[in-house]
């Protein structure tokens, strides 16, 4: 077997004919988007849609410039810089793997303290969209109220140092100030994270932070910038040695390849203040009903991930497909979603909640996707309030059962004790792990202590129907194990 060819502009024509490579002249692309947060999801999703547009001969003035605000982003920049910002996308279809080279990103800004290069680039009038994937927990939201968390230390720093901020949002505000002062006009701020109402959340964060240091600027941003809501969906595992070896199997050396499922969806509110690419011409959907699409996805897919990943982790099951192969966990997903989640989710064009659950079952069960339960269970302190708690509240308000959702919450409390049922250690897996771990151990004998964490549950500890069910489940899980608790729920 020949040695893998290092990925670069120069090597594209040397690659095997089976690999799909860019059909456009990358040197002729011009930047229109700065994207902050160059993780795997962005490169398999938003960057892919642009790549396919470019392949169709369209929108060549909308190329992406990558950016990051964390020190760890510098390592990603070095990897991508060495391969001319190209990415190998490997589709993991059970019928057979395929690969293509995505070339829609043309630069990655230096990562520097104070974010000077990022601010300068966003101030360039050629940039008309600034998009982000910074995770659900990256928007400085108070989980108890849904409001802006002005007390975060990074927010306080940015308010005191608006010209040299730490956060992506501080950098956006600094760039918008330069644009306003120069008469360059606004840009669209576009969240691509898994948050319901992600555009509204981003608006809240940007404007609230701006108001801490410059009320007039905050008013200008509010009046002139757009913050479209969007729903994004594609299962994209983390990259490790296995994925790098997979790229080598296609004959190329890529330091940061991306694997993904054979499914993508992107639904976007058509609200852009400075133009946009024609994403709809390559499969995206512009719709005024983004909230309905995202409610279905967040409640059933993202909530479903929490339903299966946490018990799987407790049992030592490493992959999402492995969790779906466990009869009890798969049945738990179907019963909880059908009885306690789907009743609060509206249908969207061509898809009912029950049909969507069937689609999710097939996607989660894809054996080619080595998506780990640990990755899915990460940051439960953001994901449970965002993906599970809203269904609990809707169920209580409607007088419908919440027993299964109480079991899901109890499973998370058990997970945060930090040990599996076989006695092995669960490594810290949440930004607030220390706090969660201490509370979870206390809750082994005093379950209401867990629901007393109002930043995650608000007043749900005072809702008798939910609190009683939660306490019963948590005590049973500790006494008899997670499988016994699941079996008891399924027998009801």
TrEMBL record:
Designated name of the protein: Mannitol dehydrogenase
One Pfam family linked to the record: Mannitol_dh
SUPFAM superfamilies (alphabetical): 6-phosphogluconate dehydrogenase C-terminal domain-like, NAD(P)-binding Rossmann-fold domains
InterPro entries given in the database record: 6-PGluconate_DH-like_C_sf, 6PGD_dom2, Mannitol_DH, Mannitol_DH/Oxidoreductase, Mannitol_DH_C, Mannitol_DH_N, NAD(P)-bd_dom_sf
GO molecular function ontology, one term from the record: oxidoreductase activity, acting on the CH-OH group of donors, NAD or NADP as acceptor
Taxonomic classification: Bacteria, Pseudomonadati, Pseudomonadota, Alphaproteobacteria, Rhodobacterales
Domain Mannitol dehydrogenase C-terminal: 290-472
Keywords in alphabetical order: Oxidoreductase
Keyword Zinc in annotation: no
Residue ranges of domain Mannitol dehydrogenase N-terminal in the record: 32-281
Taxonomy, superkingdom: Bacteria
PANTHER family, A to Z: MANNITOL DEHYDROGENASE 2-RELATED, MANNITOL DEHYDROGENASE DSF1-RELATED
């Amino acid at each position: 077997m020949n040695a893998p060819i290092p990925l670069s502009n120069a090597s594209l024509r040397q690659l095997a004919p089976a690999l799909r490579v860019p059909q456009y002249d990358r040197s002729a692309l011009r930047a229109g988007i700065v994207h902050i947060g160059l993780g795997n999801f962005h490169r398999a999703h938003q960057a892919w849609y642009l790549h396919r547009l470019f392949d169709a001969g369209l929108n060549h003035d909308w190329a992406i410039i990558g950016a990051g605000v964390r020190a760890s982003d510098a390592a990603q920049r070095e990897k991508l810089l060495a391969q001319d910002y190209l990415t190998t996308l490997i589709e993991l279809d059970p019928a057979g793997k395929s690969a293509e080279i995505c070339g829609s990103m043309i630069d990655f800004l230096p990562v520097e303290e104070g974010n000077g290069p990022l601010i300068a680039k966003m101030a360039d009038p050629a940039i008309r969209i600034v998009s982000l994937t910074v995770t659900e927990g990256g928007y400085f939201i108070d989980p108890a109220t849904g409001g802006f968390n002005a007390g975060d230390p990074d927010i306080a720093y940015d308010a005191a140092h608006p010209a040299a901020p730490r956060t992506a949002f501080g950098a956006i505000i600094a760039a918008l100030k330069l644009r306003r002062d120069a008469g360059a006009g606004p840009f669209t701020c576009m969240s691509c994270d898994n948050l319901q109402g992600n555009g509204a959340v981003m608006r809240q964060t940007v404007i609230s932070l701006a108001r801490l240091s410059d009320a007039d600027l905050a008013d200008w941003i509010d009046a002139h910038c757009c913050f479209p809501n969007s729903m994004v969906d594609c299962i994209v595992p983390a990259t490790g040695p296995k994925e790098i070896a997979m790229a080598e199997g296609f004959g190329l050396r890529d330091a940061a390849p991306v694997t993904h499922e054979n499914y993508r969806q992107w639904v976007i509110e058509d609200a852009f203040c400075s133009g946009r690419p024609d994403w709809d011409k390559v499969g995206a959907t512009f719709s005024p009903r983004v909230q309905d699409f995202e409610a279905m996805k967040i409640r059933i897919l993202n909530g479903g991930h929490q339903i299966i990943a946490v018990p799987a982790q407790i049992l030592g099951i490493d992959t999402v497909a492995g969790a779906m192969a466990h009869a009890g966990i798969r049945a738990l997903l179907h019963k909880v979603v059908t009885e306690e989640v789907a009743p609060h989710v509206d249908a969207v064009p061509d898809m009912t909640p029950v049909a969507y659950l069937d689609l999710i079952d097939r996607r989660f069960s894809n054996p080619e996707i080595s998506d780990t339960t640990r990755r899915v269970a990460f940051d439960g302190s953001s994901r449970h309030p965002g993906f599970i708690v809203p269904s609990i509240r809707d169920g209580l308000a409607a007088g419908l059962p919440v027993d299964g959702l109480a079991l899901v919450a109890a499973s998370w409390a058990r997970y945060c004790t930090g040990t599996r049922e076989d006695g092995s250690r669960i490594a810290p897996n949440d930004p607030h792990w220390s706090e969660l771990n201490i509370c979870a151990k206390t809750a082994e004998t005093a379950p209401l202590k867990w629901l007393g964490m109002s930043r995650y549950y608000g007043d749900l500890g005072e809702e008798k129907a939910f609190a009683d069910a939660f306490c019963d489940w948590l005590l049973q899980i500790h006494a008899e194990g997670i499988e016994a608790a699941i079996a008891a729920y399924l027998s009801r």
